Structure formats: C-alpha cells, structure tokens
Amino acid sequence: FQHHEAAVQLSGRLGGTRQTISAEGKDFDLKNYLEFLPAGTLPDTVELEDGKIHKLSLAVVNDNGEVSFNGKAEFSNGRFKVMGTEINEVAGLANFTEKDATIFVHAKAEEQAASVHGKVRWDTGEPYMNLVAESENFDPGQILKHSPYQGAAAFSATICGTMDNPQVEGEFKVASGSLYGYSFRKANAKVRYSDQRIAVEHFQAEAFDGYLQGEGEFYTTDLSYNAHIKVDHVDASAAGQFLPGTIGRFTADLGIHGRGNDLDQLIVYGSASAADIQYQGLQVSKMDASFCKQGPSITLDYLSLGFPEGGTLGVEGTIQDGSKLDLAF
C-alpha cells in the first residue's frame, strides 16, 4: 500500500499463539510521521525536525503475548536540535530491536562534520547511549559562538549516559588554532564533558615560539573558564601584552580565569622568570616576577632584576595600557 510518498509491503501470519508480521518499506518522509512519535520517546533537549528513511525492514513477533521485533533503517537528510544546536545532514544506518539500536551515523553542526557509531538502549526507562564520536576536522568554536577558541580538531571520544546528561571522554589533536587571537600549533589534550562542564587534562602545545602544558575547565552555562598553564622557553616579544617591553625568552607558571571572548574579564596571574633579556631597554641577566593582569592593567607584586655589571633592582606597582607606569623601586 501507499502512504504519502512511502510504499509499504506487509506479510505475516495471524492466529494461534505465535503471530508474525513483516514489513518492507521505502521513501518515508519523517515529517509526515512525527505526530505519531510517542510522548517521552525523546528528551526535552532533543527536537526531531526532518529526515527521510530510504529503506525500512521490520519483523514483529507475538509469541504467546510476548512481543519482540527487529529491523533495519537506512536514512538521510535528517535534521534535529540538541540543546539548541542544529544538527543537519544526518545520514546513516540503524539496526534495532525492542531493546536497543546499533547506529552508524554521519552528521554536521554549523558545517562541522562528525561520525558516530555505537549502541542506544531504550529498555532502561530513558534512552541510554554507549557511542563513539569521531572527526578529522571539527572546530568547536563554530558552535560555541562566544568562545575565545578557534581551530579545527581531530578527535575520538566515547559518549555514555542519557541524552539529558551525557558523559563524554576523548582525545583531541589540533594542528593549528588560536585562543584570544594568539596562535598555537601541535596541540593535544584529553577532554571530558559532564554536567555542562568541559575538563581539559594533559594539554600540550607549541605557542609564542615555545612550549605550553597544563589543564583547565570550561562551563557551557556561562562560558566561564579556569586554567593552569606552564610555559617554557617562550618568546616574550610574541606575548608582548603580558610582559610589555621585554625581549628574550622566559618561563612562567600561570593561572587564567575568564568568560567568553571578553578580554576585559580575562585575568592572568602567576610568576615568570628569565635570563639574559632586555626589559624596558635595560639589559638584564636575570628576572623574576609575580604579577596579575586584568584587562589592560598589570599589577606587579614584585619584579626582581639582576644586571650584567652587578647589582639588583626590585620593582612593584602597576602598568596600564603597556606604557602608563606607577612603580615603586
């Protein structure tokens, strides 16, 4: 028989204690059937909008009152929203029973492509996922519009839990990217997501012609983040706004706190040291500093300078906009 654009063939055997029905169909337009989706099938955070099932097979067995089924669906042109993010170009294959579904899916979000495979159980009261997501070129900055991060990542991650509260854990690698407009390359990290919190561990990257390592956390609710970064052999001229007027290389141990891409709310604090550099035109054989930078203002808790000719100088105070000095010696 025909229903809308879909063609369906039915066969089976009724009567007795064992009844069977088989169905073969093609060209189902999902928007014609969304109203028949039972309430509660999808969580409130997931909204199914469109899609097409090109081929569907289904076998249902009623064995003395115990109903079971299995089937297979090939689909494409899917579109839905997850927590407000539009997912489109969804295509793939699903093998399903009354207990679970095994899926192989490709999809895009904001033109960022990823594939997902694994199992979704629905005999647990609420659908439960055990999936693997992968991509060779996925830029999360295109989805988190107010994130200070930009850069395509290759990743492989496991996704477990319910759709309302997924638990994600994986490894990410970035050939090149930027944070607040500062470039980095050869970055890799372990990333975990749970309860709207992204935790970054074992982060390593090259930046400012030196090396970075650290960890941090990012909250998707308000886009706030905290990080602890150690930098080694970094070119001070490439990070000029943090140590203005400095030429040479330094190491540092930094804490970072901010929200979104608002530089005025970015706070960087910690300690730094260097040898054989120039600071504000002075040749310095050794430098040690403790500072806090918020917006355009840098507060020096202390700055200790040692000179090639001998002698030392201690400085504390503030530097505003890189040039307005209020220092005590």
What does this structure look like?
The chain is mostly beta strands. 0% of the residues lie in helices and 72% in strands. Strand 13 and strand 14 form a beta hairpin. The chain starts with a strand and ends with a strand.
Helix/strand layout:
Layout (H helix, E strand, L loop, with lengths): L1 E2 L2 E8 L4 E12 L16 E18 L2 E17 L2 E13 L2 E10 L2 E10 L6 E11 L10 E2 L2 E10 L3 E14 L2 E13 L2 E11 L2 E10 L4 E12 L10 E2 L1 E11 L7 E13 L2 E13 L2 E10 L5 E9 L3 E5 L1
Antiparallel strand pairs: 1-2, 2-3, 3-4, 4-5, 5-6, 6-7, 7-8, 8-9, 9-11, 10-12, 11-12, 12-13, 13-14, 14-15, 15-16, 16-18, 17-19, 18-19, 19-20, 20-21, 21-22, 22-23
Provide a quick synopsis of the model.
It is built from no helices and 23 strands. The chain has strands spanning 2-3, 6-13, 18-29, 46-63, 66-82, 85-97, 100-109, 112-121, 128-138, 149-150, 153-162, 166-179, 182-194, 197-207, 210-219, 224-235, 246-247, 249-259, 267-279, 282-294, 297-306, 312-320, 324-328. It has a 23-stranded antiparallel sheet that branches.
